[in-house]
Write a structure and sequence with these properties.
By secondary structure, the protein is α+β, with helices and mostly antiparallel strands. It contains 20 helices and 30 strands. It is elongated, with a radius of gyration of 48 Å.
Amino acid sequence: MTYRSALDAMSDAIYLTNDKGLVTYANRAMLDLFEIEESILLKNKLANIDSEYKDFELLGLEDQKVLASKQPQENFYDFRSKSSYKIDQARTSKSPIFDDKGNVIGISAHITPIGENYISSNLLARGVKHYQNIQQLTLSISKLNSEQAILWELAQECARLLSLSDCVIYIYNENDQKLTQKAAYGAKGKGRVVLSPISLKVGEGIVGKCAQLKKTILVDDLTKDKDYVEDAYVALSEISVPILFQDKVIGVIDSESPEFGFYNIKHKDFLEAIAAIAALKISELRNLKDVSEKEQYLKQILESPKDLMAYSIDNEFCYRSFNKNHARIIKDDFKVDIEIGMNVLDFVDDEAEREEYRMSFEMALKGSDFAVLEKYRNKKDGLISYLDKFYSPLYSIDGEIIGVTAFIRDITDEKMVSLKLEERERLIQTINENIKDGIFRYSVSRGFLYSNSALLDLFGVEPPGEKVVDLQNFHVFKHMHLKIYNEILQNGSVENKEVYFKKTDGTTFWGLLDCTLTVDGEEQLIDGVITNITILKEMSQNLIKTNSEMDQLVYRTSHDLRAPIASLLGLESLLDVRVKDEEQRELLGIMKGQLKQLDSIILDIITYRKVAKLGLTKDVISIEEMINNILKGMQFMENYDHVEKTIKIDATSEFVNDKHNLQVIFNNLLSNAIKYSKKEENGYINIVVDIDEEKLVIVIEDNGIGIEKGYLSRVFNMFYRATNYATGTGLGLFIVKEAVTKLEGNIKVDSKEGEGSTFVVSIPNLIQVD
């Protein structure tokens, strides 16, 4: 039998070419497989044969690669050029033919059809055709070093392998949050140009919806789909598959068809698998744009994360590759410089640890991907570390498991943060359960979600009967629930809202309600706190009553007590004229002084009550006029004429505040300066006032008797007198302090006994306050 007869008898297709790629021989199986005449094949390049045989173009390109590289090539192809073909796929194996001098003189090509019989007889897994197509496309894009090239390869190859009339690749831009067409096959593509590229917002159209939901959308009838956005032509069915990496949208693979119900599970499975691979490849290129070779690329991926340790082993647990971080850790822990081919288990001394490694490797070699969280004590420093280990089978291009890849990441910092968060959550939970105030969470769409134990106790709800308090059932006044609810939705919160509640036993209490509205995604949540203020409210009412009674007392004091004092002072004046006896006149003088002292105390009490009770007004105040009027009213005071008074006012703005309280401040400070001046020498009072748009600053300086240093900290206390040199009620400076505080100002005093005192008062200017 000749070699031609032997080759013609084979069921696999075989052909030979010369060094130019021209076909020199094709066996009978080759001619039958492609339903072609021998005369068409011979002395032609496959790539140049009539376009009816599109598969020859692929085979011809592969021939050129073999001739150029002088290396054998193996591949899988999905043959679809002619509907009469009885196969779905074929495996090609091509080898260069060398002469005695090592020169390439041609190639031999072997094509093995893969049909249903082949699949059954070889027990291939379900979906082997798609898997092999994915491998083919993966190999193709792995050799590309630009994202755009990958996108065009995806668009064209997905269309070819699935016989799609249209395939468009969208890429998501995080800056404008839109999906834009970047590559296309069919009506949208011409060469390497997308015709009239469109952009879609996330959620817009079927493509935008796919990106929003992060899942595949398959529509059999677009005429019934409201999300459909028409592009190059009116399509009738569509499939959109998200390109996801680490749950982030990179883009979308989209295909439209002019036929109803064109897409099926085959398209969905294939495109989802391709999208996953595309996501990985695109992410890799985005991280390492300058890497052109796959080996260098993988090495940099493994070396770049500082906390990532990575290695791969073969079926015998010997190293195939490892990154620097892994080598460093092994050096630190085991004092071993690892090398390719070294068995991982050889340097693990601990039997239990070695067995743990073995079990992990064997599980991965059986085809399992799995992760392990390991609490690890570093042998170098003894510190505890947390390692996240991920083991995965390592596959050959033929899909056979040839080893294990391991990725180990030190997540100690993340674990510590997680533990702290857990501890914080437990703390918050403990606080919620032990705090005296009732806490709740309400969902506008789902109702009450959470009530702490204090809220259950507050309303007399017995757990475990009810774990959530529904507040709308506990309002004394039913309309208040809806009113408060609407106020929260409108304003975003309510603060210090007094609400009258009732308990399950029918008793009532006053609660102080604070609520805040937050939005979590599409859900509106109301978080609230209820404080039982029943006792405080009773105390407040009692205080109001007490204040009312105090007002009555002050009123009676001012009218009922001052009237007899005024009468006695009048009688004293008459007696002073008639009595000549010196001893009696002295007694009358003492009586007069005591009566005036008592009258001053009453007046100071009335003044303090006015300061404490009266509300604030906003008055435009003439400071100079106020000071002059106050001094004019004091001209009959003892020592008034012996004290020189100077006034200096520097004003760049009008002053606005409460006139009554400011008058109280000036009146008391000036009267004290006069009252406590030295009689034996000429005294002075310097009044300096500075006014701007922000504040009023008053400085009152005198050279009176001064205040002993040990008394300065108490001069603003009620009924405190720092000296017995002159009469005083001990209320004047206390009233000044109260008035200054009410005006939200501050007061300071500096004094030396025997030398004088300086008071500095600062009060806000309300001229710019509405």
